[in-house]
Give the backbone structure.
Amino acid sequence: MASLKELKDRIGSVKSTQKITKAKQMVAAAKLRRAQAAAEAGRPYATRLGAVMASLAGKVSGDSAPKLLAGTGSDTRNLLVVVNTDKGLCGGLNSNLVKAAKVKAQELLAEGKSVEFYLVGKKGRAPIKREYANQITAGFDTSTVKTPGFEEADAIAAELIAMFDEGKFDVAHLIYPTFQSALVQNPTVNQLIPVPSPEGDGAGGDAVVEYEPGEEEILEELLPRYVKTQLFGALLEREASEQGASMTAMDNATRNAGDLINKLTIEYNRRRQAAITTELIEIIAGAEAL
């Protein structure tokens, strides 16, 4: 049984921890506002670029289609690009992403296809390595950058496109968190390479549009930018999701610390009162003996 001094020290320790979690919660809340605004601002651009891609892709087919759109003609070799955070203390965000990646890997393996991983961020590396150590082919370190942005997305896209051109994989799937709120960040799995043909009529209705230069030349320029945009959006969503999950986790930790402090304080006061009562009884008994 803990002594009064040990209980008092424990209360002090939990209070110190509570101050830290409260401070982290406030920092995450401040960062969340900026990260959420950036993520939401990037979504219309990606949507509009997708619409342009739909218009162009509908006019290009067969041998004239660029490789980034047409693919290799096979879907046997799959690369999972998993975007995790670099820091912890954000609840189940990273574990949910790793779980989604493993589910996708298991689905592909069950279909007789091969799977390899390209990891962005540090936190998902260890749990994936435990089961797929030999299938982690490459990755990108974002821990040295305060806020990863388009420059990092450009570098990742360039490496992935180079790997695709070298025939190292047939299909790349992007796995990242989509920010909805501070409480909800859903793992999202999208095909990244080859660029999936957008749904729709692709021709802009009955309008006749002529492109200069031709559709193939424009697609050659737009397809790599589309890949970069998807990766940039994933990084923005990751930042917003990380801050939202961290704020929620630190708020829960602060509340739990408060509950624990209350319980320890009640136990401390009870034990202290019992000790005082025992001491008084001993004093009275000694006085009566005199």
